[in-house]
UniProtKB/TrEMBL annotation, chains A, B:
Its EC number is 6.3.2.1. PANTHER family: CYTIDYLATE KINASE/PANTOATE-BETA-ALANINE LIGASE, PANTOATE--BETA-ALANINE LIGASE. Gene3D superfamilies: HUPs (3.40.50.620), Pantoate-beta-alanine ligase, C-terminal domain (3.30.1300.10). It comes from Dichanthelium oligosanthes. SUPFAM superfamilies: Nucleotidylyl transferase. The lineage of its organism: Eukaryota, Viridiplantae, Streptophyta, Embryophyta, Tracheophyta. HAMAP family: PanC. This is Pantoate--beta-alanine ligase. Pfam families: Pantoate_ligase. Belongs to the pantothenate synthetase family. The keyword Nucleotide-binding applies.
């Protein structure tokens, strides 16, 4: 979905608010697609969903902002992939704000931090910096929240900021980041935002790998830097072929490991729909599929938290279930070297 | 400030949003005065400030909602004073919403709580109830926050909900509740609400007591139920007169104690402006004034936390200061029997 002309690039809050007022005065609904940029076809499917979200005319704006509020100081804020020029070519209207967080030193005589993460800003002195956070207290804790304690706090907060700046009627989020989607839905309900949230389905590559900005790190170049993956590849090659110089191609090896996530979810879903609905059994089956793909030596090779499988969670609250006997979602997170991939599958109507 | 005609009473969210759209279409700015009802002249001064907040026409709406999200289960939610009929006579447009919190059992087959506080709802099971809270992480901790840990979380959250429902251009809050005012200012800045917050000055009774809904509990009838106050009165009478049947009137006694707060603040402010700006000295002087008014035997008589004096805090961050050498606020909270009274004084331009 390429823009036919130069995109409209909005760079500050006041201009963004004025843009929305103009579009609304033209009788259009305003739809926001919040992103961190480096857009792929998954993002563009959100833009299409936004444009089609109302029977009447819709003005769609995509925000591009790598949110320092959702990264812990140890995480990859500075290496998050970026391609603003490429992104702009794909869009019609873009909100590219400057830093959205007030830093302790901003406009104040006392020294303060600037740039970098803001996750722990409330611990810094001064008392002038950003310190307001939105907590969705149960939903933020499970699944990815257990390993990334400030993540959903940062996501909810920046999305609320974007909602207050853009003032949209509609917002579209991808259901690939399922917990994030549920956190935002709950925040909108609990804080009475007058915004319709649309969850858009997962978009996949031709080979079924779910699209993600982090897939770029699965490239040959990136992977070859990864000693864990190399070691694992050598181990598997040695076992299969009796010598360390294997016949399977390195690219194929990594890609098949990544693909095993979606394969395991398809199998789990089929099993649940056929009445094999014990969560523990479903989980064991997924782990087995992933283990076979990744070789049973993964744990010995120091892969971090190789399989974070949650079979199954209630669809809306994400509370763990013993059986898939009501609408549920199965979530999987896996580290491939330094890349964390997540996927999920909904089971809307279990037998 | 009595309304000349029947007030417009708005009872649900959709009607409230429609009201704001109509007023805005008429070219008016919309100003919100959030209250918990039981209106006194202090509240009505906020309504006047709201009406005068813009050069153009302003439509003012007062919300009346005793927020269950800011009371701890041990606090006085059910006994908070109320007089809706009396309130409505004083106003032109009122938003009186039903319960604004989704309870775990609402519309769900599983049982859940309904009514009562929601401060600790996230600890209950279910996962369907309200669980989104706004934390202003530093400002919420000090002063009143240290004795009421869920209070400012609940205030910030309900004000954000009201902002999202009413969608005002302006909101007016009283500076008597100084920390609350600063919490809301910070939330608005940090979450990018497009709302101008006006802090309205303290309004006093003819005798200088700051107006508060809780003053009603200082009535003779309420006070006579209070054994702590009676005992203190007897002690002081006995000391002064040599016998337990004192000459000072009970009403005057309690009132003079309450008034000692404002007297102590006037004295502290004068001292600071005269260059006696050591916070510890200012604090000691306030405590001395209060102690003289309340008799030095207060602590022995089991008054809870009799003097919660914070001299002095930086004006915006409420960070404690060693000296009043920059804009500051002095805050005092005192228990009189079962009533907690708070007051403050700003020092905008210390010498």
């Amino acid at each position: 979905m390429a823009a036919a002309h130069e995109p409209e690039v909005i760079r500050d809050k006041a201009a963004m608010r004025a843009w929305t007022r103009r579009r609304r005065a033209e009788g259009k609904a305003v739809a926001l697609v919040p992103t961190m940029g480096y857009l792929h076809n998954g993002h563009l499917s959100l833009v299409s969903a936004a444009a089609a979200a109302s029977a009447g005319p819709v003005a769609v704006v995509v925000s591009i902002y790598v949110n320092p509020g959702q990264f812990a100081p140890t995480e990859d804020l500075t290496t998050y992939p970026s391609d603003l020029a490429g992104d702009l070519r794909k869009l019609a209207a873009v909100f590219c704000p400057p830093d959205l967080y007030v830093r302790a030193g901003d406009g104040r005589p006392d020294a303060g931090s600037s740039g970098g993460t803001v996750s722990c800003l409330e611990q810094a002195g001064g008392g002038y910096g950003h310190e307001t956070w939105i907590r969705v207290e149960q939903l933020e804790k499970g699944l990815c929240g257990s390993s990334r304690p400030v993540f959903f706090r940062g996501v909810a907060t920046v999305v609320a900021k974007l909602f207050n700046i853009v003032d949209p009627d509609i917002a579209v989020l991808g259901k690939k980041d399922y917990q994030q989607w549920r956190v935002i839905c709950r925040m909108v309900r609990d804080l009475d935002f007058a915004i319709e949230i649309i969850g858009s389905e997962i978009v996949r590559e031709a080979d079924c790998l779910a699209m993600s900005s982090r897939n770029v790190h699965l490239s040959r170049e990136e992977r070859e830097k990864d000693n864990n993956l190399k070691a694992l590849h050598r181990t598997r090659s040695a076992r299969k072929n009796g010598n360390p110089c294997c016949k399977c191609r390195y690219d194929d090896f990594v890609h098949s490991m990544a693909l095993s996530i979606s394969r395991s979810l398809v199998n789990a879903r089929t099993a649940a729909l056929n009445g094999n609905n014990h969560s523990q059994q479903i989980q064991d089956q997924i782990v087995q599929t992933l283990t076979e793909a990744g070789d049973s030596s993964i744990k010995q090779r120091n892969f971090r938290n190789p399989f974070d499988v949650n079979a199954d969670c209630e669809l809306e609250s994400l509370v763990p279930l013993e059986r898939v006997d009501r609408p549920a979602v199965i979530c999987v997170a896996t580290w491939f070297g330094k890349v964390r991939l997540i996927e999920n599958t909904e089971i809307q109507a279990p037998p």
